[in-house]
Design goal:
alpha+beta, Trna Endonuclease, Chain: A, domain 1, 4-stranded mixed sheet, 3 helices, about 35% strand
C-alpha cells in the first residue's frame, strides 16, 4: 500500500497536488486557497519543512508542521490543524517559535468559523 492510499488528494493552484492526512487538513487547505485567491497570502505548502526539538524523554524528535504559508510581504508562518490537542503538541509548536517563526493552531471549531466567514461549504 502506498503512502498516498490512506490520504486525501488535494490539488491546489497555490500548492499543487498534495496528499493530506485528514478531512480537517483538506478544510484548512480550502481556506488557504480562498485566502490566496483574495490576495491575503501568496502561497502555501503542505508538510514542507521539518524542525528538530527535544522530546519529553530528552531525545531529539522531528516535528513537521501541517502548513507553511507565505504572506504578501514574503513572511513565512506555519499552521497546525488539530482535532484533539495532545500534551506534546505544544512543545512541538514551541520549537518553531524558538526559531523566530510564528505558528498558529487551528482547532476544528476555528476551522468551522473560518469556513462560515469565507462562505465555504463544510466537507
Amino acid at each position: 500500500m502506498s503512502l498516498e492510499s490512506n490520504r486525501h488528494p488535494y490539488n491546489s493552484p497555490y500548492a499543487k497536488l498534495c496528499y493530506l492526512r485528514s478531512i480537517l487538513e483538506v478544510r484548512i487547505a480550502r481556506i488557504l486557497d480562498r485566502l490566496c485567491e483574495a490576495g491575503v497570502y501568496r502561497t502555501w505548502s503542505y508538510e514542507a519543512e521539518q524542525f528538530r526539538f527535544k522530546g519529553s524523554k530528552g531525545g531529539s524528535r522531528i516535528y513537521i508542521p501541517d502548513f507553511r504559508v507565505v504572506d504578501r510581504a514574503h513572511k513565512v508562518f506555519y499552521i497546525e490543524g488539530k482535532g484533539v490537542l495532545k500534551p506534546n503538541d505544544i512543545k512541538k509548536m514551541e520549537s518553531i517559535k524558538l526559531r523566530g517563526y510564528d505558528i498558529y493552531l487551528l482547532m476544528s471549531k476555528d476551522v468551522a468559523q473560518w469556513e462560515k466567514s469565507l462562505l465555504l461549504s463544510r466537507i
